[in-house]
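Box 3.1 A note on notation
Throughout this textbook, protein chains are presented in two layers. The first layer is the amino acid sequence; the second is a token string describing backbone geometry. Keep the layers aligned when reading.
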Amino acid sequence: MSKPALLCAALLWPAAFVSAQNPAPGAPPTAAPAAPAAPVSPEEAKKNLSQALGTYFATRQKSLPGAEAPELELFQKGVSDVLKSGNKSYALGAQLASQLVHDSLDVTIDDLVAAFAAVMQGKEPLASPQQVNDEIQKLQANLRQKQQAAAQKEAAANEAIGSEFLAKNRSAEGVQVTESGLQYKVIEPAKAADAKRPTADDSVVCHYRGTLLDGTEFDKSPENEPRTFGLKGVIKGWTEGITLMPVGSKYRFWIPAALAYGANPRPGGAIKPGQTLVFDVELVSIAPPAPAASAAPDVRPAQGEKAVATTPPIAVEMKDGKPVVRQVTPEQEAEAIRKAKQADQGKEKPKAQP
């Protein structure tokens, strides 16, 4: 395979590497091999592959921050033009151009191609390693600024929707409002009149279901399997709300963005910047503080600096004294951020996290 073809494969199929390095969690280490699939016709195999890849790329596209739905006719034409050409060099150029268009980067085609050709032909690079590093850093900073501005705009729009809803909801039957702005309703009171309420230092055992205002469910505890987690490791709305509940009761909470994730929800998740959240919670019991919790609701606090994907990010590595620029998938960036945070936390006193 030629060098351009190798580069093309690296750009277009990053998921294969990610999957190989990070097998699905929970799979038995000595699981028996799967039974061979029933043979299918070449036409059926082609259809299955096409549908799988279309689903994969669409899902990945939708998960990108600020992703917009493409015009399907133009999308189909672009795919058709590249595939019909059958030329890997053309496909590589289309891949690079699509990134430049997506990120609205202003470049000169002649200079870009000349620099590309110099490296591919083993000539002296037109940009030094330091220049490459400086330009990539500036590019990443600019992209982050654009995405942060887009996230702030989206957050403002969602906060307006949430504020309008909460203004009407506060006068609904049974709804109570705390000084912080948290709204709640007692769905089912505790059976015991002297039932204990947890404090913010406690760990609790809960059944829960989280939705957006439009009813979209983003998290819930498995049926008949309540979850245990510490109230110091959740968003402010949860910490305040759960401490209002006596054991055995069921409440509904409407949590404004300021008490949830604000403008910094988890990248690619169902919760968008500035959204108001709704939780139905049953407080089963109060538990001793646990050293760690394996699974808790999607309500971790937004603390510290938040990562913003660069659709996709770019990494620069040095190989044989020459700069090598490669793309990084959102999954790889998220994994790198997770490991970095774990390393930072390891330097501090261990703390239970949901």
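The CA atoms of residues 49 and 246 lie 53 Å apart. The longest helix spans residues 129-169.
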